[in-house]
């Protein structure tokens, strides 16, 4: 497992986060639902826009070059660069998971439904969001684990301190 494996996993989550809010919500069940008041559609739009924002931010964090302070001693630069790569990917995983974690919490609000009554017969499961949430969160966790392990192994090979 190298540098790119956790980033590829996170890229899958990011791609789903960017695209699926529009695929799933820009139709008769949400945005074009005549029973929805304008303010509900407003919040659907907000949520749909949040997906691409979080997905693209997650990608940027995962793939950006680690920037070290200008006064970093040359002898510490390789270790600090690795640690910075790990920190960036961990934050990218947290950002990547935000959309899915908040989607789970939505069911706990008063009068909230995972699927409106009129569309329940077409839903594959009672809470179809879980079909995306669980795999996305598992991929984020796997990316986090693989990056932490990669950096710990690399630091150990350099004779550096083991990362947790």
TrEMBL record:
It comes from the Eukaryota. Keywords: Membrane, Transmembrane, Transmembrane helix. The keyword NAD does not apply. The keyword Transmembrane helix applies. It holds the Pfam family DUF6640. The chain crosses the membrane at residues 7-24, 44-63, 89-109, 129-146. This is Acetyltransferase.
């Amino acid at each position: 497992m190298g540098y790119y494996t956790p980033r590829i996993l996170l890229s899958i989550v990011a791609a789903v986060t960017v695209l699926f809010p529009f695929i799933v919500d820009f139709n008769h069940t949400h945005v074009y639902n005549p029973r929805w008041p304008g303010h509900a559609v407003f919040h659907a739009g907000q949520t749909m826009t949040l997906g691409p924002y979080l997905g693209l931010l997650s990608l940027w964090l995962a793939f950006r070059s680690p920037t070290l302070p200008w006064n970093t001693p040359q002898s510490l630069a390789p270790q600090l660069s690795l640690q910075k790569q790990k920190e960036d990917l961990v934050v990218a995983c947290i950002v990547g998971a935000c959309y899915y974690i908040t989607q789970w919490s939505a069911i706990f609000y008063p009068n909230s439904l995972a699927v409106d009554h009129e569309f329940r017969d077409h839903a594959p499961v009672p809470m179809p969001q879980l079909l995306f949430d669980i795999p996305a969160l598992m991929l984020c966790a796997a990316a986090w684990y693989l990056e932490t392990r990669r950096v710990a192994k690399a630091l150990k090979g350099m004779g550096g301190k083991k990362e947790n």
